[in-house]
Structures are given as C-alpha cells and as structure tokens.
Amino acid sequence: MKKASILAACCCALVLALCSPVPAGHGGHERPEKRGILLAAFGTTVPEARAALENVEEEVRKAFPDLPVRWAYTSHMVRRKLADRGVEVDSLETALARMMDEGFTHVVVQSLHTIGGWEFHDLARNARAFSGMAGGFDRVAVGGPLLNGREDIRRVAELLLDLQPADRRPDEALVLMGHGTDHPADALYTALAVELRKRDPNVLLGTVEGTTGIGEIRDRLRERGVTRAYLVPFMAVAGDHARNDLAGEEEDSWKSVLSRAGVACVPVLQGTAELDPVVRVWIDHLRSAMAAW
C-alpha cells in the first residue's frame, strides 16, 4: 500500500474512533445507572418560609420514594445571606457537580419557579450543559415552572380559587401578588389574571416588578366598591416580598396602599409551595421531564 493510502486510512480510522459513541462512565467502562432529582428554587432567607420548600420535598419523596432528592438555590444573593448565617446551600452548578461526583447518571432538575423568566432559562441552559461532559451524566432533563402553558394557567386558576380563605365573602376581594419580570414570560401573569377574573371578578393578580401593579389593583377595587381584601402571595414561599412588599407596614406596601384607599386588608402569608394541589402541578412537570429519560 502506498504511503498516501496508508495515511488516509489512518486518518479515517481516527475520525471514526472520535465520532463513535463512548460507553457511559470513566475510562470507557459501563457504569451502573443511578437516577436522582434536583429541586431548584430561587430560595429564601426567611426561616418561616422554609416550610414551603420542605413541603415540596416531602411531596416529591412521596411521589418518587426510590429516588434521592437534592436541593439548589438559584439566587446568589440568597445563598450569600444564608452563608453569612452559617447556612450553606448549593448553587445549581455546585449541586450538579456534587451529583456527578456521586455517580448519578440521570438527573431531573425540577424548577420551582412560577414562570419561565430569565432565571428559569439560565437554569435550563446551565443544567443541560452538564449532559455533554465526558464521564458525566448520561441525561439531564429539566422540569418546567408552575405556569408552563395554557393548561397550567387554567389548572392553577381553579386551584387558587379552591384554596382561597374559607371565610371570604363574594363581595370581598382576593388580591394575589406575583413577582413579575421584564422577561416576555411576564405575560403569563396577565393570562392567569384573565382566567381568574373570568371565574370571579373580585380576584385580582398583580406583580411587584411586572405589568400590573398595586395602583391598578387599588383603582379596580374602588370601581367595584370593595372594602375588604385578602392579600395572598402568588409565590412559592411567603418570603421577603410577602412579608414586606405585600403585608408590611411601610407606606408603599400593598397593605398600606389599599388601607389608605379604604380597603381593610387581611394578609395570608402562605406560599404556593405550601399548597399540596399546587405542588402537584410541579410534580407533574417533573414526571413529564422524567419521561425524556
């Protein structure tokens, strides 16, 4: 065989070797399958709000008793504040690296965010990057946020009305506070608000940083002659926003703004992650992500 032909044959063999599938595991050896769940929340620095996340973990463990569950907080600010108190919580990337070192082959990262905004998309991009590492995971799937489509919006609207304070009268308002964002996904809050008003015109949803604020809600309550309102966070946990922006005593809190408008306010400091029927929406997204394994 001529030298040129030999060289061409060697190059071809090298390319085929590089492009061929490599068995999972280190050193090209098969490894046992190990599956796990990573719950990823924004996080909270409020100790009382932690119960909501603990409830999610409890429900997930009930639904998937044979799978290990790990945690990550996506907020650097929350992790830093907790670290200052001596409480260490992993970032998404650190938690995935630990699971990789533990030999997990398949991981579902379940977002506990409310909508697919900036943080969710960062989470999804970084999580999926771990599936392409040599000797890493065979598969990393990502479960969607609470409002992950039209059916979720209808389902969550019905759940919120089913789970509202039992002593609320029809002439009283239910005011829900979401976080809000400048991401296009903020439109999901508007879509949910429409679904809620279809079912009950005295149920209003606004956001801290989104399209509909407390001023618009105050004006709607005035127009309807509502004089009493239950204030409820539409967030996974009743953390800082719920305790200060919603129910705080500062003059710009929602409670203060509505009180000055003649609306008596009853704060209900309960996050959506404390409500088992709502948690089951996240669990259904987790189950759907597992189907991709």
Give an overview in words.
By secondary structure, this protein is α/β, with parallel strands linked by helices. It has two domains: 139 residues, Rossmann fold; 109 residues, Rossmann fold (3-Layer(aba) Sandwich), CATH 3.40.50.1400. It is 44% helix and 15% strand. It contains eleven helices and eight strands. Strands 2-1-3-4 form a four-stranded parallel sheet, sandwiched between helices. Strand 5, helix 7 and strand 6 form a beta-alpha-beta unit. Helix 2 crosses helix 11 and helix 6 packs across helix 7. The two termini are 47 Å apart. The N terminus is likely disordered.
Mind sketching the topology for me?
Blueprint (H helix, E strand, L loop, with lengths): L2 H17 L15 E7 L8 H14 L5 E5 L2 H9 L7 H10 L4 E6 L6 H12 L9 E5 L6 H13 L10 E6 L8 H13 L3 E5 L6 H11 L3 E6 L6 H7 L7 H7 L3 E4 L8 H15 L3
Parallel strand pairs: 1-2, 1-3, 3-4, 5-6, 5-7, 7-8
Sum up the structure in keywords.
293 residues, alpha/beta, Rossmann fold, four-stranded parallel beta sheet, 11 helices, 8 strands, elongated
Give a short account of the largest sheet.
4 strands, parallel
Instruction: State the secondary-structure class.
Output: alpha/beta
Apparent shape: elongated
CATH class of the largest domain: Alpha Beta
Mean pLDDT: 90
**Radius of gyration (Å):** 24 Å
What is the H-and-E element order? HEHEHHEHEHEHEHEHHEH
The number of strands is 8
**What is the total number of structural domains?**
2
Helix content: 40-55%
Strand line-up of the largest beta sheet: 2-1-3-4
Annotated CATH architecture of the largest domain: 3-Layer(aba) Sandwich
If helices are DSSP runs of H or I spanning 4 or more residues, what is the number of helices? 11
Ranges where pLDDT stays below 50 over 5 or more residues in a row are: 1-28
CATH fold annotation of the largest domain: Rossmann fold
Percentage beta strand = 15-25%
Through-space gap between termini: 47 Å
